[in-house]
Amino acid sequence: MRKKKLVYLVAAICWFALTAFLLTIPGNDLPKEDFLDKIGFDKLVHILLFAPLVISWGLALASPASRKKTLVILTIVWILYGIAMEFVQRYLVVNRSFDIGDIFADAAGCIVGYWLGMRYIKK
Fold first, then answer.
1. Rounded to whole angstroms, how far apart are CA atoms 30 and 101?
2. Which of 4, 31, 37, 89 could cross-link to 96 by cystine, CB 3.0-4.6 Å?
3. Per-residue CA distances from 89 to 4, 71, 81, 112 (Å)
4. What is the DSSP letter of 121?
5. 3-state secondary structure 22-36
6. Degrees to nearest 5, angle at CA 32 with 113 and 17
């Protein structure tokens, strides 16, 4: 079982690194797609980045006895991370800006991750 938890931890760390990388790409290196902006594709990307954060860290850290508590804490931590990354984008990343809509999408992704974690992480 420990080996499985280690695999989950490595996956969680890799997913975190990927999200950090993607959230700090300079704005001029991002594709400019008016059509995708109109359908809210950016918000879907945020949801799809943040849900796996909660799930992967939940798989790595939750025990059957602490599943709900661990997932609640992880959901809060990753929502705060999403908020922090908006400030990072505003002040530290070239051609990126603060977007409250992204914060809501990040939070929605975390809530989806919590819900999926509660359903599928073994009790």
1. 18
2. 89
3. 35, 26, 12, 24
4. S
5. HHCCCHHHCCCCHHH
6. 40
- State pTM to two decimals: 0.90
Span 75-96, mean pLDDT?
95
* One-letter amino acid of 24: T
Query: What DSSP string runs through 40-61?
Result: THHHHHHHHHHHHHHHHHHHHH
Contacts 24+ apart (CB under 8 A), 16-24: 16/53, 16/57, 19/49, 19/50, 19/53, 20/85, 22/49, 23/49, 23/85, 23/88, 23/89, 24/85, 24/88, 24/89, 24/92, 24/93, 24/96
- C-alpha span between 96 and 109 (Å, rounded): 21
Q: Which two tokens stand for residue 70?
A: 């661990």
Tokens of 89: 């984008």
